[in-house]
Specification:
By secondary structure, the protein is of the alpha/beta class. Helix content is 29%, strand content 29%. Helix 4 runs parallel beside helix 5. The relative contact order is 0.14.
Amino acid sequence: MLKTVKKLEQGLRGSITIPSDKSISHRAVMFSSIAKGECIIRNFSSGADCHSTLNLFKQLGVDIQFLDNKTLKIKSTGELKKSQTPLDNGNSGTTMRLVSGILAGQNFDSVMVGDISLSKRPMKRIIEPLTLMGADITSVDGHAPLIIKGRPLQGITYHSKLASAQVKSCLLLAGLNAEGETTFIEPYTSRDHTERLFEYLGADIKINGTSVCVKPSQLTAKDIDVVGDISSAAFFIAAGLMAKGSDFVIKNVGVNHTRSGIIDIVSRMGGCVEIMNEHIIAGEPCADIRVQYTGTLNGCVIEGEDIPRLIDELPVIAVLASQAEGETIVRNAEDLRNKESDRIKCLVNELTKIGVNIEETRDGFIVRGKKELSGGAELESYHDHRLAMSFYIAGLVCKNEIAINGFEWTNISFPEFEELMDNLI
């Protein structure tokens, strides 16, 4: 699908309610499926990735019903059943990496498959620590498909070189069904939705800085309301800070500190974002975010502990940086190369076409900003939903119309994206 985008002639105004958080929606279904009891999940994500998780657990024998298009009822005995067919993870790396931790300790074997894009993404990062716990996993040179032979697991202490919520969550899930304690230690604190939901659902878990320890536990089902996705909100935040005259509110956004790096960075750049009406939903901080155009943005350095708090938002931050004074330097973000695409290389290739002064580095990029973007080019999404939406935001400030090839990939995480943007224009 080829999508054309024209320059905005006015600011964004009004209010929108952002769709539900993708990371939490995944975990809500996973954890409720291995918990004992019945629960309701409200505001479940409509993205294709989360539906891959939902359908996978149906394959594993869990009773999951839609009460309406965003409300689920899940009944579970706390035990899964062997699937007679390969478990289809679609395009979802979160599904494959986290569910592998659950399946490794079952009393049956499983085969995990995904689409062409997912089959290129690295799985050694979970295979290696799970193997240390006693798991038996066969891969194709560290990639899907994965053959997981269920067997008893032993808790371990694992020091991760990566600050990775997916690796952490995989091991903690394996630890629920392992003998002894499982401890995961990372260099920086990655997103902590798993830890929060574990506590909410009654797991025996202890958190000490960047160390998380879980003991064998049976989760107990409880209703879960899913907050709005700050990664989705980031596109609107960037657009509002670039479009003259913008003043709008994004409602019901998750503002968990381990995910809200985008708020800190745009504030550091001089953008005007205000957090209002803070409250807690199912253990997660939530708030409304007011975005106001000021016309004054400055470049900054994004590195180290910043990165795990905004790894998914870096593509649209690159677009925002093009409209800031001076340089914006992103370092320590080499894991961007292992997403749905090599996001560093692809981002630089495509943004250069429309006049962004951006330079690729080994572990990030440098944007030299405050230049009118020419536009007038066709950009490739590389089957990557976040690149497609970032390029759309770039098109709103380009002098000439742009086109985005493969815009339908936005359905992976955010099928309502265009509709919500239209509500503010």
